[in-house]
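During the second year of the project, the team shifted from modelling isolated chains to modelling whole assemblies. The rationale, set out in the original proposal, was that interfaces cannot be judged from single-chain predictions alone. As a representative example for this report, we include one of the complexes processed in the last quarter. Its constituent sequences, exactly as entered into the pipeline, are reproduced here:
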Amino acid sequence: MAEEEINLPSLVIVLLITGLAVRYFFFSGNASRANRQPGGTGGVTLEELQRRREREREAAVETVQQMFPQVDRRTILWDLQRHGGNLQATTERILAGRTETPPITFQPPPPPTSPETIAAAQQSATAAANKPAEMKTHPDLITRYNLKDKLASAGPSDDAGAAAGAAPKIGGWSSNREERQSLLQKRRDQMIIEARRKMEAKIAAEKAAAAGASSN
Amino acid sequence: MSINVAQRRLLQEYRSLTNNPPEGITAGPISEDDLLHWECLIQGPEGTPFEGGVFPAELKFPNDYPHMPPSMKFLGDVFHPNVYPSGLVCISILHPPGDDPNHYEKASERWSPIQSVEKILLSVMSMLAEPNDESPANVEAAKMWRERRSEYEARVKTSVRASLGL
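Output from the structure prediction step:
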């Protein structure tokens, strides 16, 4: 009987302590989870996992698209999905031209629409929009480097003299920063103008040859 | 303000490229305010469809140059197996030092601090003359170059003339 009397309070104490411990862990765990996902139940971690996977997939698609801007997102996603998201394998298949066209039933999730990605998408869209525009407005080197006037002003007659006179002057390194800059630009302009002249002459020669051949 | 290693090295390379410019190459920083951003012109090698053309490209150097290589991007249309459609150049000398994880390239072909801008530009010039079929960056160009060479050459020639405004 005495044994029981001693055991009962100690048993109560032990139970109380374990109860408190369980409660402590239970509540603290729940509280931190509740902070992250209010109203969430057991599926909170699952949701988070899914989001993380989504982010990883987007990063993979973006990496592939940076390497191969010509391949569309749907093809990349299809390939990644089919082959377990192996980035390297996908890259190799694209390089080898072995990507399959995804079936019509394959509807990839749209790109995520967090503010950051929207901004990034807009940026890339404007960049993409700017690029062809730039290509169009600067279709050739003459326009790109504003050489129309120089091309027109320096006639072919004084070209040889100018080139001979200017070439040695342009070659050196100047200690003056601005002078260096303008010399570099001159060399660049000269290179393009020369190339253009040579190509003009070549085309003229080809035309003459063709005309000669046809008249004979 | 002391200029760092990359800037000092680039200024030195700029100087030697100005004093002894290699045939068919003009290169230098767009502005000396930013020595890490260069623009260069490369002449198309003779005896190739690129002959007669002049190709502008930009070079972007990392802060830890010359430990790491710059990236190079053509600013015009260059239809070539080793140039991505975006213009980005893909050759071994522009790849970070060390061994290739795919074992395509020897470590000696890749970037190392003993290489230079001049060597990159000369390598790109010879790449224009002789594409490397092993690791195509532009699959369409690689395929055409391999299978329909005359069509490839005609296409390049047309774009060279267009780039000169002709």
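The longest helix of chain A spans residues 177-215. Confidence is low (pLDDT under 50) at residues 36-41, 130-138, 157-169 of chain A.
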